[in-house]
Amino acid sequence: MLALMAGPAYAQQQSRSQPAASAANPDSPVVLDQINVQGEGVPGGTLLNGPTTTRTTRQELDREQVQNLSDLANRVEAGISFNRQNNSLNIRGLDGARVLTTIDGIRQPFLIDTRISRGAQNAFDFDSLSTLDLLRGGSGASTLGGGALGGALAVRTLDPEDLLRNGRSYGTLAKTGYDSTDRAWFGSGAVAARMGNTSVLLQGGFRDGHEIDSKGSNKSIGATRTAPNPSDFNQYNFLGKIYQEVGDHRFGLTAEFFKRADRTQVRNNTVSLTGNFRPGAYQSGEDVERNRVSLTYDYKRPGGFIDEAHATLYWQRLKRDDLTNAWRFTSIVGPYARDNSNEENAYGFNGHVLKNFQTGVLSHRVTLGTELRTTSLEQYSAGVDNCPARPASGAFAGALATCNNLFTNQADQPKIDGKLVGLYAHDEIGLIDNRLRITPGVRFDWYEEKPQDTPAYTNGGSRPVGLPPSSSDTGWSPRIRLEYDILKNAPLVKDVTVFAQWAKTFRAPTADELYGRFGGPSTYLRTGNPNLRPEVGNGIDVGLRFGNKQLGGSITYFHTNYRNFIETYQVQAPGVGGLYPQGGITGYQNINRAEIQGFEANGQYGFAPNWLVRGSFAYTRGKNKDNDTFLNSIPPVQGIVAIAYGTDVWGAEVSTKLAAARDDVSTVSGGTGFNAPGYAIFNASAWWRPLPQVADLELQVGVYNIFDRKYFDAVNVPLARPQARDYYSEPGRTVKATMKYQF
């Protein structure tokens, strides 16, 4: 029963670099690596290090067969979710633009379209990653800046050093496999080499598959359908790096390319057998492409005038296209196609320096840094249909009335030129032989979003009158953290540390929230609000962490108050003055107060040689304090428990993901929250290294949701649900098989 009530754990074999004596002695304990441990260096590095940051390494991602953010939430990190409705990670009940994602320290924008509210926070390939750091809460804003309201996800891509093992001058890593969740075949390969003071890395990967499975079995056409729409996708990436070392200095050049294309044959309520849109003649799609070129500089000389310096100069382009390709059969018969495109080009510089020094009995670790960024964002909706030229009145009548809803070949927002300047300073002050540490710090940000006139916007069907004003503001993100080591090197639990921190953070409005404008006087209007103020969070974390990989864990209580939360509301009722009869005018406003609080805990225990049991737990509760309603983005109580066994040759684990029912939902804002039933899903996996002394070849198979349980991820269910209930269910029993070779 203990084995069946388990969840993701990590039964990592001992490294080959460990002394052979431990393998020769069968009674010597083997300490298994856990999930939430640091890889090389401190979790989060200098900028995200803290008591609420956890790190997952490349080896742990492979062992848990994690290849997307949903896998991470189901097998590794309790209390987080990936919202597939808007393509964003949910941390502590917040998602979308309220969670910041960085790739090699470069912030990723949350690009959404006025017509389709989906972002692209997952525009990277998991097989290209070296480490993944997850920060819960807003304390990261004091170094990373705005956007980390709920937390931050910081991923680092592979470096040559990740493949150059045991002093070799070259290394390879290859992986392939199959996942029945979306019937996907995938593969990746990486090579690295060192030649004197020069090192290089080349990595590439692909993934081809279909729709994500669910427990829906009704394949009818229309609103009664519960099976997912048939889909196909292909994804591929390329990563190249070269580094040159000159004494204590290292200079680097990185080029990265990622693209994913999804195509879906729509079978749900959008089509019908006799309607305007029919099955087989309505295809939707999404293209996401990210390109990056960056120059890096790293310096390290402990005891010098500056101990460390790190800098990145980059160009990044992120492009999203939401596509429709269809044929209308009754109203305005003929082709109907749309390409809603958002493209942001960004140039930026990130840099920070570190200095350690002593003043009397106090030790100091000072960090000074900056972020400079300039962006250009353009949105355009291209399309074709059989509508004639719009009449002078601006509204079609009679048989052509449908054309009132089909504005295209226009921009739904002006071109936006953005600027960001951030400056931060922190000092970790150590007392009592560094057992007591006090870390004050603050970051200052100034941002500006400035609309630029374009004919595509000025002549749009929403009839804008002139350009909206610029949006500019400043934000202070102070933080203070206290840590005290109650015990050091104690015999049972090693170290015991209590901590408390207070932090403020902010989130600037997105371009869509400020300037999006779609619709027309004869239909409806969705409009931005250029007068929106930034959202502000003010929160505390208090907790305890103890032990190490053999026996350890942490407990945290958090409470955050938010001001100026941005939400949609009805600006004008339908039909006022004979205008906007279909839906009136909807827009954005700030609400005064919201509150999120909860508990998080995790722990692990290597209770016998080669054995590990671990668990994690998360409880979150959130409310709109203006109207005393629940926030529908809050997940239910969740837990992950696991038991695992591993040697140098083989290992296995049995795990469970547990979630309570979610009944605390709101029916007020934009739709009804989903009342999700509780569930328990069980997983099992095993791995085998047939010839560990000859080649690092590893075979692994995992079976997830073993008992084929129907369950719902509450955060992933939309507020508006036109389909039957099971349409929104998660996958049933799935199998994943992988083969990895490293040399």
Automatic annotation (TrEMBL):
Low complexity biased stretches: 8-26
GO cellular component, one term: cell outer membrane
GO biological process: siderophore transmembrane transport
First-listed, main subcellular location of the protein, grouped into a coarse class: membrane
Annotated segments matching region Disordered: 1-27, 452-472
Pfam family, one: Plug
UniProt keyword Zinc-finger present: no
Superkingdom assignment: Bacteria
Compartment annotation: Cell outer membrane
Membrane topology, from the record: Multi-pass membrane protein
Domain TonB-dependent receptor-like beta-barrel: 229-706
Domain TonB-dependent receptor plug: 53-152
Keywords: Cell outer membrane, Membrane, Receptor, Signal, TonB box, Transmembrane, Transmembrane beta strand, Transport
GO molecular function, a single term: heme transmembrane transporter activity
Family named by the database record: Belongs to the TonB-dependent receptor family.
Name by which UniProt lists this protein: TonB-dependent receptor
Organism the protein comes from: Bosea vaviloviae
Higher taxonomy: Bacteria, Pseudomonadati, Pseudomonadota, Alphaproteobacteria, Hyphomicrobiales
